[in-house]
Design brief:
mainly alpha; Serine Threonine Protein Phosphatase 5, Tetratricopeptide repeat; 76% helix
Length: 373
């Protein structure tokens, strides 16, 4: 995996020599060091490497020369040489955290994460907000299968870099790995448990293998028919498949086990509407859903649909206005509002809502086309 990093700082002459043995820092060494630094800044890293190596021969305790040479090797992807030089740098000055960070990154690139981890931890301890080091440490922790801590590090990194796509991608993969590890643990404990079958059903459903998903969900119900959640999975699968009568049966069973499940109340009512059950039937469940979860916008929209079918457009209006405020780009809401305003004799408002419906429907279609291209 490619490391994300900003190039590290090459030490300047004054700070470089501040802690060195004076008798080694001769005018010749200073001049050669300056030439090496200048060569690096002009992009001639070959000459810079040669000069830094010459400096080290004349001043073998000059920490900054090792540090700068190691950085150049790292940027040149010569990680073996970087390890050699930076190891010596840290032997001379264990507190050189730049060297510790880059040495740790070099070990990571060489697939030696065990050696990289303590070096990167030390560098991050010295500067907890170092983005380079925190990302590198997260990748090392992933390689060492320490996913929980890696996720924590990535979240910290993304708080400072919320638009870093690589960071989000790595975090997503880390969560997926953690999820898979948890599934493996569950199967190791009891592969025939209701939870194990529910998880298997979810994986099948995500893969659009609905036949297998339904089988797994039924097995989960057989194992734990009175456990909240088991009927919900099967009901939702039927709901997605448009098998409304089967969905209704399972949602009712779920509500027997979990009477305060607002989503089950809403989806049961939605299945009734889709199945063209008597229009009054969905209203109690929609009222209960909204009472339990006032912010469940889908329930408000479905209650408005039920009122419209009953010819109670004025009662549908508050739910639709709330839904429009929450989801102004949803075409269906504008279409329903247009029908309500038309029935109430508000022609201008109805026309405006139809224009909004056509606008957002067109944009949704264009967005879907771009995603499929």
């Amino acid at each position: 995996m490619q490391l994300w990093f900003v190039p590290f700082h090459i030490f300047a002459v004054n700070s470089a020599f501040a802690r060195q043995v004076n008798d080694q820092v001769t005018p010749e060494v200073q001049q050669m060091f300056a030439q090496a630094k200048a060569a690096h800044h002009t992009g001639d890293d070959g000459a810079a490497i040669e000069k830094y190596r010459a400096v080290i021969k004349l001043a073998p305790h000059l920490v900054a020369a090792y540090n700068n040479l190691g950085l150049i090797y790292f940027n040149e992807h010569d990680y073996t040489s970087a390890v050699e030089v930076l190891t010596r740098c840290l032997e001379l000055d264990p507190g050189m955290m730049t060297a510790s960070a880059v040495l740790g990154m070099s070990y990571f690139h060489l697939r030696q994460s065990e050696k990289a981890e303590p070096l990167l931890r030390a560098a991050l301890s010295a500067n907890p907000r170092d983005d380079n080091v925190e990302m590198a440490l997260a990748l090392v922790l992933i390689d060492l299968r320490k996913d929980r801590e890696a996720a924590t590090r990535l979240e910290s990194f993304l708080e400072r870099n919320p638009k870093n796509l690589e960071g989000w991608s790595v975090l997503r993969k880390t969560y997926l790995q953690m999820s898979e590890d948890a599934r493996t643990k569950i199967n190791g404990i009891d592969p025939d448990s209701a939870i194990a079958h529910d998880i298997a059903g979810e994986l099948d459903e995500n893969a659009q293998n609905y036949t297998a998903a339904l089988t797994e969900y039924r097995r989960a119900i057989d194992k734990a028919p009175f456990q909240p959640g088991t009927h919900m999975h099967l009901a939702t699968a039927y709901w997605h498949l448009g098998e409304w009568n089967s969905a209704e049966t399972e949602f009712k069973s779920e509500l027997t086990n979990d009477p305060d499940n607002c989503t089950a109340h809403w989806k049961l009512a939605d299945a009734m509407l889709e199945a063209n059950d008597p229009t009054e039937d969905p209203l109690p469940d929609l009222d209960r859903s909204i009472s339990l979860c006032p912010g469940l916008i889908e329930a408000h929209v479905d209650r408005a649909r039920a009122f419209i079918r009953l010819g109670k457009q004025s009662e549908a209006l508050p739910d639709l206005l709330m839904a429009e405020k929450d989801s102004p780009t949803e075409p269906t809401i504008h279409f329903l509002l247009a029908s309500v305003y038309k029935a109430l004799g508000k022609t201008a408002e109805a026309q405006q809502e139809m224009r909004s419906f056509e606008q957002w429907k067109r944009r949704a279609s264009e967005s879907e086309m771009h995603q499929t291209q």
